[in-house]
Design brief:
The complex is a heterodimer.
Chain A (H helix, E strand, L loop, with lengths): L3 E7 L2 E6 L26 E4 H12 L12 E7 L2 E7 L6 E4 L4 E3 L1 H11 L6 E9 L7 H17 L4 E9 L8 E7 L2 E5 L4 E8 L7 E4 L1
Parallel strand pairs in A: 3-13, 8-9
Antiparallel strand pairs in A: 1-2, 4-5, 4-8, 6-7, 9-12, 10-11, 11-12
Chain B lengths: L4 H12 L3 H12 L2 H19 L9 H13 L5 H8 L9 H13 L4 E5 L2 E5 L1 H12 L5 E2 L1 H8 L3 H11 L1
Antiparallel strand pairs in B: 1-2
Helix pairs in contact in B: 1-2, 4-6, 5-6, 7-8, 7-9, 8-9
Chain lengths: ~220, ~170
């Protein structure tokens, strides 16, 4: 059982955090698969399974019965190749418009939000968006906009590695949960009790980035 | 003024607690007004009863163990009707929907399963799945959520809900 500390969050909510942070990355960290290199020489990324739970919650939480599924945008951040935090953007300041086919957002506000939520300046930022009932593949619009989004993020955090994620999620039906697994160099897949999830990672030039699941 | 040992202990615990200041602030606001203070004392007595049960070993009947194992193996939410249909042959009493429903609800109150309501149907599933589904519906995240509401919606004890949320962080 993980030890937690609960604080008053206001508006009927509580703030919950782990009582003791896990030891910093060491040789004892149970990394299942060590990332190799991607096309651009980036070491690849490692995502803890607890963060995959949060990715699932984030993407599925926008779905409402009898309403069309809409795209959602979120970010992952961390240091070096290790992702350690998910950032949810629901404010109108960041997300201007969302439909089943597209989502528009303001990259600068997104970075501002990430910096407010972190205690350090992230060395890695992964900008992810969902494809409801779609594939974990980049659209032409995605490919065209990624270099510009990466540039705008690096204008604010010059040393950050900026990557992109496409989170495909199936339509809803009851199914057995399956744990996250790597299905190709840059893709992970798992199933919740209602939807199949598949996330692919790319650099700003649409080249695949190697991903692994840790913890 | 000489303070009693317990009051000293409370002050020490609050001082040492990461959230001690905000807990103290909330307590001061409640204790300063008699009407609120009275409600707080009543609720405190309820909480005392809940926490006194925390360390007790949870005992499951043979049927409860069988149903729990069955739902875990399925890895997906099931209704009482589905449990009746699948286990009724092996355990004839579970063939009656009212009995399977009572067994499932007993497992929920013991924190061994959780409930998810979809339309008019109630599904029973593992605690982790029930909490995750509840977070999704409420558009909340594990770090900041309405844990008491989640406990009410899933039917599970608050300590189980907090444990599950800890596992999601």
């Amino acid at each position: 059982m993980r030890k937690i500390k609960v604080g008053i969050g206001g508006n009927g909510t509580v703030r919950i955090k782990l009582k003791k942070k896990k030891e910093a990355t060491s040789s004892a960290t149970p990394v299942m698969e060590r990332p190799s290199t991607s096309a651009r020489g980036f070491e690849g990324i490692s995502i803890p399974s607890s963060l995959i739970n949060q990715m699932e919650i984030r993407v599925e939480s926008v779905f409402r019965p009898k309403e069309q599924d809409v795209e959602v945008v979120y970010a992952l951040s961390g240091q070096d190749s290790m992702v350690d935090q998910l950032h949810k953007f629901s404010s109108n300041e960041v997300v201007a418009h969302a439909t089943p086919e597209m989502i528009s957002y303001i990259a600068e506000k997104m970075v501002e939000h990430i910096r407010e939520e972190r205690t350090d300046i992230p060395g890695l930022i992964i900008h992810a968006h969902s494809h409801p009932s779609g594939l974990p593949a980049l659209s032409d619009v995605d490919k065209n906009s990624m270099p510009e989004v990466a540039r705008r993020i690096r204008d604010i955090i010059p040393d950050a590695a900026v990557l992109f994620g496409v989170h495909a999620v199936s339509s809803e039906y009851r199914r057995p949960r399956t744990p996250p697994e790597r299905v190709s160099d840059n893709r992970i897949r798992w199933s919740s009790i209602t939807r199949l999830h598949e996330v692919a990672f790319f650099d700003e030039h649409a080249r695949p980035v190697v991903v692994s699941i840790s913890g | 003024m000489v303070r009693s040992e317990n009051i000293e202990k409370l002050a020490g615990l609050l001082s040492a607690d990461e959230y001690g200041e905000e807990i103290a602030e909330a307590l001061v606001a409640i204790m300063a007004e008699e009407r609120k203070r009275n409600i707080f004392v009543v609720k405190l007595d309820e909480i005392k009863k809940i926490v006194s049960k925390l360390d007790r070993e949870i005992k499951l009947s043979t049927l409860e163990s069988a149903v729990k194992k069955f739902i875990q193996a399925k890895r997906q939410p099931l209704t009482a009707k589905e449990v009746s249909e699948e286990l009724g042959e092996q355990y004839p009493s579970l063939g009656h929907r009212t009995h399977s429903s009572a067994t499932l609800n007993s497992l929920v109150s013991k924190g061994q399963l959780g409930k998810i309501k979809v339309g008019y149907s109630v599904y029973f599933t593992e605690p982790r799945e029930a909490v995750m589904e509840c977070l999704k519906r409420r558009d909340e995240e594990p770090e900041r959520c309405s844990s008491t509401q989640i406990a009410a919606e899933t039917g599970m004890p608050i300590n189980v809900v907090l444990e599950v949320i800890g596992g999601l962080l």
